[in-house]
Amino acid sequence: MSYSQQALDQLERGQVDEFKKTYASALRHDDDETLYNLAEELYSLGFLNQARRIYEKLLERYPDEDDVRVNLADVLIDDDQNDRALELLNEVSKDSPAYVRALMVAADLYQTQELFEVSEQKLLEALDLAPDEPAIQFALAELYFTMREFKRAIPLYLGLIKQGIPEFSSVNLVERIGVAYANAGRFEQAIGYLKQIHSGDMTPDVKFETGFTYLQLKDYKPAISLLEELKDTDPQYTSLYPYLGQALVAENRLDDALKTLQEGLGVDQYNEKLWSYAADIAARLDNEELTETYLKKGHDLDAEDLDIVIKLSNLYVKQGRFQENVDFLADYVGQDNVDPQLYWNLAVSDTHLEKYDEADRYYQAAAPYFMDQPDFLKPAIYFFREMGEHDQMMSLLKAYVKVVPDDVEMADMLAEEQLNDF
């Protein structure tokens, strides 16, 4: 038995001290092929230094052996010696039998460094040289998947599946292509693959994507089933809660939806979007106190979230808390890109507070954005009429009658005003 085999047997038995001695003997006495095989085994077991020493010795003895050079580069990459690894890979000439493998190792390194375009160039060159090699097709598909270039990943995964390769490097390609289709917005195709996988065999990510895909297809019952299963097995998977809530709302299970969002907030209390969605469901349940509590929690987390600002302002207006609304929005109306809904809410509030000049200013600011909204136009028309702003009133009145031609009262008002103008 060779020293190399003895060393591996000792490792298997956990005899580390004996292994070190036998490994040293192997370096001195075993033939090069045996050492090459030992290096491969040691590398797979994570003994990087020992594998590196063997490859360095062999490369010194056989400087033209590019297979050894690429293997050494692989070890160096795992040992965070990337610059030295790239030097070795760049030494492999294009006419070398190891060139394609050198390209793939380099591509993998660049991908770990998030230099995705360089990685893509290496893999495309490798694919051009070996177009039928599944390992290259898979590596390129995985790169595009990582880059979220799902439409480019899909045909590569599909090609592998058509070759009878449903799994590669412990990656389930049926799962991958299903998730890729889902992320590309092609939900019908996605579910065709994802439903082939038994839920017990799904990773949490795949279970989430499958539930999400059913939700997009408005197939709510399987969406709820999968997302609830994910919640039970992995409650820390915070992304599931808003989508499970959405599916429950679609089934008119509002109490269950609110409970789900509350569970999610117990896991992820710093997610302002979750507070906002919980507030939406509380509002649908006519629980304004809870709605306000949740909106304020979300606002405390992100005061710049305009969606929450608008919802809270809308609530103040609905409840007649006009001064509170004006005070609340004071910090927002001077900013750039103010949502016009805030102007509308301030116009209503200032009108009720009898601050007519301020109300006038905000109605003027809001008007261009709501010329097709009867709920805005009608009170604004009466406001401008009271303020004696005839031209502004007529502009809005004409817009209103165009949108709501069956409103006899407003049609008569327009006719009367036009007659007076004549």
TrEMBL record:
SMART domains: TPR. One of its GO terms (cellular component) is transcription factor TFIIIC complex. Coiled coil: none annotated. One of its GO terms (biological process) is transcription by RNA polymerase III. This is Tetratricopeptide repeat protein. The keyword Lipid metabolism does not apply. Pfam families: TPR_16 (PF13432), TPR_19 (PF14559). Keywords: TPR repeat. TPR repeats lie at residues 32-65, 204-237, 238-271. InterPro entries: Tfc4/TFIIIC-102/Sfc4 (IPR039340), TPR-like_helical_dom_sf (IPR011990), TPR_rpt (IPR019734).
